[in-house]
Design brief:
By secondary structure, the protein is mostly helical. It folds into 2 domains: 48 residues, no CATH class; 147 residues, Up-down Bundle (AhpD-like), CATH 1.20.1290. It is built from 10 helices and no strands. The chain is globular. It starts with 11 loop residues before the first helix and ends with a helix.
């Protein structure tokens, strides 16, 4: 259950957010309504997301795998639900998207580069971040510096989204119910106090 009302006071920013959300996604997006209690924060966040959507240096498939892995690492069920639907809208391979949160158990589905991108996303999402020089240099060689910067920014952006949505108590709006290939029932890796170190720390790719 959401920890904040999803019916914010009506104002021009909230009205525009409702209109755009229903037009683009067919429903009112709960994160926008939670943010609607602070119209300036909602406006700033929305403009930022519109700018993020125009980043095109990184392959969309790699970008989405990084986003899904980051959301899973934090445990944002809303983000995973929406991400599954968004992958379908982008025409991405749904089997890969489905198993991205547990990719280490299904390495045969992913290329070497995809695995390295997901390893990097996990390492960035750890507390404290566990990125190594080897991870970064290998990806810079494979992707180029511009795409590497975009990958790093996207993981950071998804950390922001996932941590906000999780803190608000948002758990999903049924986006993935519309997909032919459903998400896994539970795809969250261990996290939180007492959890074992993340996969990005304990089993680096050689």
């Amino acid at each position: 259950m959401a920890r904040i009302s999803l019916d914010p006071p009506r104002n021009p920013v909230v009205r525009v957010a409702r209109w755009y959300s229903r037009r683009r996604y067919g429903r009112t997006m709960e994160p926008l309504m939670a943010m609607g209690h602070h119209p300036r924060a909602l406006l700033t966040g929305s403009l930022f997301e519109l700018g993020v959507a125009r980043w095109k240096a990184l392959d969309p498939g790699l970008k989405h795998l990084a986003v899904m892995v980051s959301a899973a690492r934090i445990g944002c069920s809303w983000c995973l639900d929406f991400g599954h639907w968004e992958a379908r809208e982008l025409g991405l391979p749904m089997e890969k998207v489905r198993y991205a949160p547990v990719w280490r158990e299904h390495r045969d589905l992913f290329s070497d580069l995809e695995q390295r991108v997901m390893e990097y996303a996990e390492a960035m999402t750890e507390t404290e971040p566990a990125v190594t020089d080897e991870m970064a240099s290998g990806l810079v060689r494979r992707l180029g510096e511009k795409a590497f910067v975009e990958l790093t920014m996207m993981v950071a952006v998804e950390n922001l989204r996932s941590r906000i949505n999780s803190a608000f108590g948002l758990v999903g709006q049924g986006f993935s119910d519309e997909c032919e290939v459903p998400p896994l029932p539970s795809a969250r890796p261990p996290a939180g106090p007492g959890a074992q170190p993340g996969p990005g720390v304990t089993k680096p790719l050689s």
